[in-house]
Structures are given as C-alpha cells and as structure tokens.
Amino acid sequence: MTTTHTASPTPPPPPEAPSSSSNQFRLVRLGDMAFVWRPRIAATYGALLAVITTVFAISLSVGEYEIPLSHVLPAILGSGERLDAYFVQGVRLPRALTAVCAGGALGIAGAVFQSLSRNPLGSPDIIGFTGGAATGAVGAILVLGGGMLQVSLGAMLGGIATAALVYLLALKKGVQGYRLILVGIGANAMLLAIRDYLITRAELTDAMTAQVWMIGSLNGRAWGEAAAVGIAVAVLAPVILAVGPRLRLMEMGDQTAYALGVPVQATQVIALLAASALTGAAIAVCGPIGFIALAAPQLARRLARANGTTLVGGALMGAALLLTADLVAQRALAPSQLPVGAVTAVIGGGYLVWLLYREWRTGRA
Prior knowledge:
The chain has a two-stranded antiparallel ribbon with strand order 1-2. With 365 residues, the chain is mostly helical. It is 69% helix and 3% strand. Helix 4 packs antiparallel against helix 7 (204-215) and helix 5 packs antiparallel against helix 6 (177-201). The chain has one domain: ABC transporter involved in vitamin B12 uptake, BtuC (Orthogonal Bundle), CATH 1.10.3470. Strand 1 (26-30) and strand 2 form a beta hairpin.
C-alpha cells in the first residue's frame, strides 16, 4: 500500500508594515472642510523655509560693507542708517530675491519634467529645455545685439520652442519617459552645436559676453530682474500647482489616469509649456544655471519621504540651493566673486554621478 503525501500550501507572508513615516497622515477637519495633514512633509517644508530665511538674512548682512543682523530689518523698511539702507535695498535685496525666485522656478520646473518623464534624470538640464533657452538668449546677444529685454525674450521663446519640438518628436500614443529623455538629449546636442557655431561667427567681444553669460551668474542683478522672474513665478506656479493632482495620478500610468478621468495629453501640454516658460524666465535673468532643476525635486522628495511629485518641496529646495550657492559664490574667494553657475556645477556634478550610480545599481539606467 502506497501512501500519497500532499504538500500543505505555504501560507502567504503577512503584509509588511510601512517602513517609514511617509504613509503617516492625519485627517484634519475645519468645519465642513477636511484635508490631509502629513507631519513629515510639513516638518520638511518648515525646515526649508527656515533655511531660506536664515541664508536670506545672512546674504543681506555680509559683504565688503558689513551690516549687523539686527540692522537688516530696519534697513529693509528704510528706517535704519542711510548707508545700511543703500546696500540692503539697492544692492543685496534684489539679488537675494532674484536667487529665491529663480531657484524656486527651476525647482518646480524640474519636478514637473521628472514627473512627466517618470525618471529622476528627466530635468530641463538633461533633456534640452535649458539648452533651448540658452541658445535663444545667445542668439539674441550675438545675432540681434539685444539688451536685457531681448535676451529675456530670446530665452523664453527658445525654451518654449524647444519644449514644443521635443514634445512633438516624442509624441506617440502619449509621451513616454525614456522617449522624452532620449529625444531631449538629441535636441540638446543639436542646440549646443548651433550655439557653438554662433559663437565662432561672432566678434570677439560679443563672443566673450555670450560665454560669460552662459556660465550663469547673479552678480549685479537689480530690481528689474527680480521683478521679471517674480512675476513669472506668480503667474505660472499656480498653473502648475493646479495640475499637480493630475500629474500625481499620471505617475501611476497613462491608462490608469485615463480610467480616472484625467485628460492626459492636455495635462502634459499645459504642464510642459508652463514649466518651460518658468525655466526660460529663470535663465533669462541669471543665465543657464545647472543642476538646480535636477537635484532640488529629488532632494525634497527624499527628505519628505514622499511617494509622488513634490512641487512645493521642489520649489523650496530650489530656492534654498540657489540662495546658498550664491552666498558661497560671493564669500568663498572674497573680495572676488565667483559666478554662481560654477558653484552649482561643482555640487551638481557630484550629485549627478551619485544619481547615475544609484540608477545603475537599481537597473533603471
């Protein structure tokens, strides 16, 4: 007599408990309204605001003419010493505001591009939009001999035109992440060739002007630049925040987003154009400063342990990074001042190497 042994089924493993506090939240009710409160994200955003405020105050205080921190606020309000008010209101305040607004614009634009491409490498620096804006600005300098207004318009038009071209070339039943990145890298290479050709055909003085501009700097930025990028952020950031919930749903896949009623292509076009215009506005006032748009969204996302797009976090981190980098650029080799683009390139290069290594280890690059 033979006995048949039937293997007992292996019990399924118990569900894993959440490994981080990213999923912790509280439902807060205020009257008839209710919203989700995530303590970790709120603490991260609060810390970033504290960093921005601290570095902002230090930026107004230090320099060849030192101003005590206690005198900074009266100087802003115009009630302090006349010399303090001159340096704060006329020199340092517009430069610091330009850094905050441009850094915020690059950070939120980087979050949009990375959300659309679903890849941390999908920033404006990598996929050509920064190159398009820079080529437009260089064309305005070398071909048209334009001033600040023409350079700004050239950067805006260059960024938007590049965004439209890359979107159309990458469009095939929607925009897929890797296709967008590959098309963008190709477009960036062609724009770089056009930019170099324009420089080789220009007069020496104009070529040097364009080359200095392409490093990226906040030296000598005044109220006009601060107002220009501030208005761009005030107009375009609300548009991006309005489509933010759709972007988070689209990160689950286009088909899922369609099923949930999200107009995928319309959302892609709106987000892409608004983010490209923000990138162009930032580049128009301070040149093609690299790596802020690449690093800010990912750093904010990791600090907050968020699972999806962090538009506000990207903007805050971008502002903190550019403001801090500009302070380092001013004081590292004082009294000489470095272009802030050189500082962000040094820091961002190391970050890019780490990011590529991490993507390779996880098999996504």
